[in-house]
Amino acid sequence: MAESGQHEQRYERYEGGSPQAERLVFEQLARELMEVQVRNRRAGGGDAARAFHAKAPVAVENARLRFHDDLPAALRVGFAQPGAEYPATVRLSNASGIRQGDGSPDLRGAAVRVRVSEEESHDLLATSYPVSHAANAREFVAFAKAMAGARSPLRKAFGLLVKLPLAVGLRTADRMRRNVRAAARHTVDSLAQETYWSRGAILWGDAGPVRFLFRPAPGSPPAPTPDRRDPDFLHREFARRLARSDVDYDLCVQRFVDERHTPVEDASVEWKDGTSPAIPIARLSIPSQDLDAAEARAIARRIEDLAFNPWYTTEEFRPLGNINRARKAAYQASSAHRLGLRFATGEPVRNRVLRRPMETAFALLNRYVPWHRLPVQLSLLNLVFLRKVLRRLNLIDTEAREAPPRAQRVPEPIPERLRGERSYDGTYNDLSAPRMGAVGSAFGRNLRPDYRPDLFDTPNPVTVSRQLLYRESFLPATSLNVLAASWIQFQVHDWVNHRRHKPGERSVEVPLPPGSGPWRNTPGGPGENVMRFAENEGVEVPGRPPILFANTASHWWDGSEVYGADEQTARFLREADGRAELRLEDGHLPTGTNGGIPLTGFSDSWWMGLSAMHTLFAREHNAVCAALRAEYPTMSEERIYQTARLVVSALIAKIHTVEWTPAILATEAIDIALHTNWQGPPKKWLDQLGLWLFESHSLTGIPKTLPDHHAAPYSLTEDFVTVYRMHPLIPDDFELREHHFGQRLETVGFLDIQGGAAETRIRKTGLADTLYSFGIAHPGAITLHNFPRSLQQFEREGEIIDLSVVDLVRTRRRGVPRYNDFREGLHKPRIRSFEELTENAQTLARLKEVYRSVDEIDTVVGLFGENPPTGFGFSDTAFRIFILMASRRLQSDRFLNVDYRPEVYTPLGIDWVERGGMNSVILRHCPELAALLPRGASAFAPWRAVRPTGGSA
């Protein structure tokens, strides 16, 4: 490893000055290569092929590589030992990314996988010309893009003479054309007679950089003159040759001399034999066989599904140089795209051309007229372009990525069952990056973090809470009901959870302001002059501030709050004997031994509203199971369970998209936009034309598109967590009523229905009356001076906490920018005075008392204090995170787009989701509530209240 690092520093120079900067370049180039594959597929027909070397006349897996007994001592490294022999897979190919006849002018390639053991293999890739037409990866991709889709001589000439110079400049394009023409002039009669050069260097342990080549072994018989009209003559010639005898190649290496004669970074310079002679070190033998037999054809098909990559090796043999470093990301992306594991969504030229001027126009317009004050159609178009900007500039990957590339084993095959069902922990949602979005993945960012330890306690968060958050009187959100408050907590528990240290193990201490009195941090504990609560467990990354945190839930919309985030929990929650249903007791969640908290996927911060949601959707899962069993009697219990998980998770996503969100953002534009996300735009010619011109991907709902992560691997973000701090929705007290006659059952405080007390209360009240009671009651408005008093002093896991203070402290310590920077980062103008935030005289006075300047305002305070657009339940600034992340949760998740199909969900499952909604879920399990649900609105709008006819009201 140390030797590898020394060679890396000695021979390699990173584009952009660092491995991290170069990695970002390579990832973009990889995406561009996927677009090349799309264009080649359109030109060549059929499925997506390799970006290069699409057609393989020869593919065998019974070759052998044997190192010579007299292998020079300096080259005895790793698996390269005298007399060592290994099985090998060989694929000989035409270099074009379009499958075409063997007679077309082209280079040829060899891919050899040497299998040393179950844990070790080495992929050796070479091409039939000693140098690359491109000096580096940028030139390589520019050439590929210029020639993408070019089959006719005219198109090829246009690519070489027009597109390529525009991309790389006249001088570079001329050099590249000369190399390509020299290579293509060579006529090939037999793949057995070709020499294949690595062109780029690899490390050879302590021997340093080498280039390798495969050349025909001495004595190989010449090939007869072929019939070049036969599109498969190279295969036929090789097959006839193998039918008679073995085909052998010598593996040779050329050793590094100096940077001038044998450069590592520039693949367009030949390592000449006179400077660095080719030393034969091994013999590659393909044994005599019938290439046209059924077994050989089946082997060839299997090899077509392999992904060769020069980085599938060990660190002793790691590839070197710019092009080689780029090949890891490029080949992984290309092979994943070809195998249907990763997707490319090209943007039409008209959309690309019109994007920038329209973004500029709307940015200028929004200086004077905010989007929500424009006519509906114009506001919708404005949102389209705002989302484009946010996708481009406000998706920041926080994971510590591999830079520079490292050698690795050939990846394990994807577990077949996970192609059609969700994993328990979120792995394999993106089949090309199995860990993306899984449990333990880091939260991303929408804004660059601003980590300011010197401002953690400035101004004092307790003062901020008491002056600006404390609920002095209940401010209702009259367009919603308490089910909306329950729902969002139900969702947040599926999406995000920061792991905390155990109480007393590692704590945050917040000093109390003078004159505020003592605080008891534990039940019955002493009064103290500090608030103390458990710190979050961070992910330590050398050289970074401690602001990276892992999500203990999966980032995907997978119903983990119902099913659990690991297999052990999921199986524990199921009925005995492997039945597909979830365990229920008389229709309610079974209770555990932890103080009466029920057994479910995620039960933190438990209260009666959460219990109602969990109970409802546990019942819904069981209803889906029963329907699947009746419709498909041969379906196994495991398949029924997994399919029901998919159906319920998708139904939850749909309800949130087209019901909860339009309820809390009650405007016509948002209602249209959110329904467009799920089912496509209204069938109006003007809407269709506008999207065709500017955003054609929105012409269908997201479930009919392909996965697209846009500018960063998928994750939920710390900024997303911040805008979903919606605790003011929770009332401090509740009136429980029965739905038949409207009679009051009892009035309870939040703490009376929180924790273990929730299950006792919901069983006593019943699910139907609980839903009714919450359906007719209003939640709190998401605004200042409305934080629930019950949450400002309550017990959680042995601690007494003020959640309003915790919200402020967490946001600061996680490096979420303060409100004014938050606004600016989301492309809104900064506020210059407190008066721009609020017109309320009392709030204004308190803001000025608490904060020295508008730039100090806490993010949570600013979001709550901002005057929202008409009909909005939260601020326009928070909404910007929402419009970015709401569609991202659908767009990135293959189970909500490309695999949202009857083959995976079953026809019944798709129909269940498409016809279903919150009303149908409620009525399936509480049909007696039918007449009480709101007409023409979602179940999150206020229900009809039954007027008591007598007795206590």
User: What structural class do you assign from the helix and strand content?
Assistant: alpha+beta
The general outline is elongated
Q: Report the uncertain regions.
A: 1-8
CATH fold node name of the largest domain: Myeloperoxidase, subunit C
Mean pLDDT figure: 94
Could you name the CATH class of the largest domain? Answer: Mainly Alpha
Instruction: Please count the beta strands (DSSP E, at least 2 residues each).
Output: 17
Count of spatially separate domains:
2
CATH superfamily of the largest domain: Haem peroxidase domain superfamily, animal type
The largest pleated sheet is described as: 9 strands, antiparallel
Characterization of the model:
The chain is α+β, with helices and mostly antiparallel strands and 953 residues long. The chain folds into two domains: 337 residues, Catalase HpII,  Chain A, domain 1; 532 residues, Haem peroxidase domain superfamily, animal type (Myeloperoxidase, subunit C). The protein has 29 helices and 17 strands. The strands form five sheets. Strands 1, 2, 3, 4, 5, 6, 7, 8 and 9 form a nine-stranded antiparallel β-sheet that branches. A hairpin with a 6-residue loop joins strand 14 and strand 15. Helix 4 packs antiparallel against helix 5 and helix 10 packs parallel to helix 18. The N and C termini lie far apart (78 Å). InterPro entries: A_dioxygenase, Catalase_sf, Haem_peroxidase_animal, Haem_peroxidase_sf, Haem_peroxidase_sf_animal, Oxylipin_biosynth_metab. Pfam families: An_peroxidase.
